[in-house]
Amino acid sequence: MNMLLSDTLELPAFRAITPELVTPAMDALLAENRTAIAALCAQNAPDWSSLPGQLEALDDRLSKAWSLVSHLNAVTNSPAWREAYNNNLPKISAYYTELGQNAELYNSYERLAQSPAFASFSDAQRQTVQNALRDFRLSGVALPEAQKQRFAAIEERLSSLGSKFADNLLDATQSWQRPLTEDELAGIPDSHRALLTQLAQQRGHEGWMATLDFPAYLAVMMHADTRNLRQAVYRAYVTRASDQGEKPEFDNSALMAEILELRHEQAQLLGYGSYAELSLVPKMAPSVEKVMEFLQELAERAKPAGRRDLEQLKSFAAEQLGLADLQPWDTTYVAEKLKQQQLNLSQEKLRAYFPAPTVIAGLFRIAETLFGVNITQADAEVWADGVTYYEIRENGQQIASFYLDPYARANKRGGAWMANARSRRRLADGTLQLPIAFLTCNFNPPVDGQPALLTHDEVTTLFHEFGHGLHHMLTEVEISAVGGIHGVSWDAVELPSQFMEHWCQESEGLAWMTKHIETGEPLPDDLLNSLLAAKNFQSGLMTLRQLEFSLFDMRIHSQSPLSATGIQTELDAVRREVNLLPPPSWNRFQHSFSHIFSGGYAAGYYSYKWAEVLSTDAFSRFEEEGIFNPETGRSFRREILAKGGSKPALELFTAFRGREPRIDALLRHTGLTV
Fold this sequence. Notes:
Layout: H1 22-41, H2 52-75, H3 79-100, H4 103-113, H5 123-138, H6 145-175, E1 177-180, H7 190-202, E2 208-211, H8 214-223, H9 227-238, H10 253-269, H11 275-279, H12 288-321, H13 328-343, H14 347-351, H15 356-371, E3 374-378, E4 388-394, E5 397-407, E6 417-422, E7 425-426, E8 432-433, E9 436-443, H16 456-473, H17 495-501, H18 507-511, H19 525-533, H20 539-557, H21 564-578, H22 594-597, H23 607-625, H24 630-641, H25 649-657, H26 664-669
Parallel strand pairs: 5-9
Antiparallel strand pairs: 1-2, 3-4, 4-5, 6-9, 7-8
Helix pairs in contact: 1-2, 1-3, 2-3, 3-6, 4-5, 6-10, 12-13, 12-20, 16-17, 17-23, 20-21, 24-25
């Protein structure tokens, strides 16, 4: 039986899922769904079970299959998987566009919303119907036929362009390598040298190898004393997939321009002035103007701190390191040296206290304490060595599960993310389908049989992605369209993930996740105090960096389409406003900005900062009542995690916090309070 078409509640047999299975499985599923949808459209008096209930069942089967394909393409990328994914992506895109433009289905939902039964629907049912009607309209259901067809063609083309953008970035990242001499290793700690040795061996070389995989990139940028090496690696990294890169065949320039052009056309077809306006329709933010005001206000608040941060870096670089002309390829290195001197805090010294197994155990203990669950490892087939599977239980009853794929390896996309493997929903026979999550990171892998040692930033990333996972897995909604992360306003979806990061900055939380790799000793007081003192180290510059990305994203999506040159001009303009150490003219950050060109954050990157207001304000209640207070934890689970997208995000936040969000906690937590 085709593993992709299985309707059982069993776990996927990953080793049996091959690229050759994808096309026949997708073709069969899409054909079956289209036949079933045609029957749904013929109803005169639809009710919940005969319309949204039936449509959810069809979507669930398709999304479970496609999520496996998407996941395996990302974590075991190969020519065969890429071909299978890219050949079927246009079919999936066309199907959902066709579904969104089905006027008969839209009319059936309208009749359902106007029926007497609608008043008796649950919150989740009403929200599902209202979201569906909104999404129909945003899919062009009301457009004249010719414009409908154009909208559909744009949607299909955009999905292909986004996939090609991601492929180019992965190929450009993996194609670059540089053998290193022993002299160039000066300053790089032994654990990082072991990684560089491992990378060389994997590529059939002796000695050491620098690559653009993020752990290797960071090892050089943070520790290498050889400035020319830092500059070379920096240049290769920031010119990936661009006109300035070494491989012109991976240049994303034309793709970015076409993506912006098509998004703008799509927005205009629907009657919006820009793609940014269209993007905000299902979000919390009321308007493009309000988003820009929010970002610009934060930028003004961050600039004084940013100027102090930069002056501190420049002075230290000149006086202590002989670098009179601080450059972007120096800042990570200088900041690490400054942190070591100023706070007696070395990332390398700190890593010894963050063995991955200890961190993971501490993360689980924190979640168990706050949310009243138990997390245990269980046996399951996985797709690669180093991947583990866990079950979440409450009162002995399993309620969810997840796969954790934490380490970087060849043919795995960079970055960190949570993806939906399976949604929680009540099946027609009364069975409850439990949610399953994919949690993916790209940390330094274990070397020489020793556990992986994480940086504090990597620990924070793990907590962040697990927060997304908790949102998905601890939902109590039994309608997948508004359960977990589904149906949540995009600018609120980062609330649980950023919320979980706070335990990485608290002494009580750190005590549960640290243990020296050799001695087993807890984090000593001097290192703990230094780590806590470093919470807002260089936070002014870091805040401005995020605001640069957010402002750039909103600006290029809130005006007429830009060429590749125009995109660069707009980024340069934003940098003149908020970047206090402008990068060189050949920097092409935008060509690897996958969040907005191949992810879901187009005209939505601001949501990281928007949600940070929510997350810090939510955490401030724990500061008031105790960061491990189980009653507060249960309240967060009950009001935020359990309800997913079944109610508006602001309503859920207000129910938890007892009031609407305030920016005060964010300013305090980032050291920007005057």
